User: Which sequence fits this backbone?
């Protein structure tokens, strides 16, 4: 299932994000599209970890796509590239 990540992706958008995540079938592949996201904060990183748990934590089942350079740098600094597929 592909989900468009809201912008801004932070505490203020958590309800919308979690509503979409809660509708996922168990054990489904999740693709999070970051095409609208310019920056991430700590709450966004936490929401990504919760989304990963929702699909049972498999690295291959969660992909973060269309990340801009800034977002990729934040994800790599937090070592999320070891937890998620980031093409």
Assistant:
């Amino acid at each position: 299932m592909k989900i468009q990540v809201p912008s801004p992706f932070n505490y203020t958008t958590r309800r919308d994000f979690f509503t979409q995540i809660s509708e996922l079938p168990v054990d489904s592949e999740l693709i999070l599209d970051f095409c609208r996201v310019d920056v991430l904060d700590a709450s966004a990183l936490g929401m990504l970890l919760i989304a990963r748990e929702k699909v049972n934590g498999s690295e291959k089942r969660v992909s973060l796509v269309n990340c801009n350079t800034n977002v990729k740098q934040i994800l790599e600094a937090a070592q999320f590239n070891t937890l998620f597929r980031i093409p």
Notes: The mean pLDDT is 87. Strands lie at 2-4, 30-33, 62-65. The chain has one domain: 2-82. Helices lie at 14-22, 42-54, 69-77.
